[in-house]
């Protein structure tokens, strides 16, 4: 009986495959069959950029998890709703009297969601505060995060790996992606470590053990860094044959991270602080002292899309719902995107947004909706900025090592997406004939990671048209 049922399922699968066989090129079919990914778990749409109807549509209307290709929606909406020249500000306020370099009162740092306030920029801004005459803070440093109204973020919620940099949550006062770059340097059998940036008041406890051989590509899987109180404990094994390596980790909550980084930089610049660093609101009695501005949005979306930066995408998504009268939250951002889609006459009834970055088990969009989004973006006056933000296949970003020896190299701007059980790609392919094509290929299946060859085969087939 079990054998008969198994045979029946195989027959049904064969019939379904035959029904769709004419829709996909043979190399794509072969690649899918080789890794046992059925048609029911893929979604594909291929259309010429100016065409009203798709050339290929398989499960096109099915809601699917797009992984990081959801960043296409967030960045395109950002370009149109905020504008390519939009910048984020971070303010320094003084609550007290500043005289002869001494502030008798508090310094307040207020953020508005800058997605890329790097450690280099933060150092320069601290230096500016010194140049403006601030040397000693005889009070506290108050951290004002009130521009974002968010529920507490659990960095372990997504995959129970809270120290990974991709799990950093958004924050109105995000500095340096809340990340610590851990350098590991072998000296024979000995191993030394140091961090960037320096973390004031935190002492490294290096318990790494060197081993002769190991997996250099995934060396960080064998390392467990964590901060306990005032100690950075790094333990595990490191293959000394791998040479010097470095990896970003997120080891502290936002406010404490900013606190230890501020203290280290301020002391380095010759400043002093007598109080503590704590969260709070900017009082009405404070006066504006200095303002830092981010690079423009058109520049920042290149980092979001080319390198699939999750926390930057989340910062941008929240900024879509921020106004001068209300703090940003997820609900306002979802509504802002819905209103924008309605205005553009795009009906995506299946769309589910959680954070706009695609680092989600619940976000959904159909391949057809994604293709329509890309087609609409192509006709936008902001199309050059949008397309230029996407990785070039075989050249840069997340596609640097993909199809780099293929004829398709240099001929596609595509966003990738990967989660456990999800493999996605979406964007534009320039064919040999000079036509531009829109390609969307989602895989939602346990073997999704093995589906890359099928996606690559489709890209190559489209490029040869």
Throw out a few tags for this protein.
about 475 residues; alpha/beta; D-tyrosyl-trna(Tyr) Deacylase, Chain: A; about 25% strand; disordered N terminus
**CATH H-tier superfamily of the largest domain:** DD-peptidase/beta-lactamase superfamily
Whole-number average pLDDT? Answer: 93
Largest sheet: 7 strands, mixed
Structural class: alpha/beta
Share of residues in helices: 25-40%
The number of helical elements comes to 11
User: How many β-strands, per DSSP?
Assistant: 18
When the domains are counted, the total is 3
Secondary-structure element sequence? HHEEHEEHEEEEEEEEHEEEHHHHHEEEH
Q: Specify Rg, calculated over alpha carbons.
A: 25 Å
CATH class of the largest domain: Alpha Beta
**Which oligomeric form is depicted?**
single chain
Q: Which CATH architecture of the largest domain is right?
A: 3-Layer(aba) Sandwich
- What CATH calls the topology of the largest domain is Beta-lactamase
Shape: globular
Span between termini: 48 Å
Roughly what fraction of the amino acids lie in strands? 25-35%
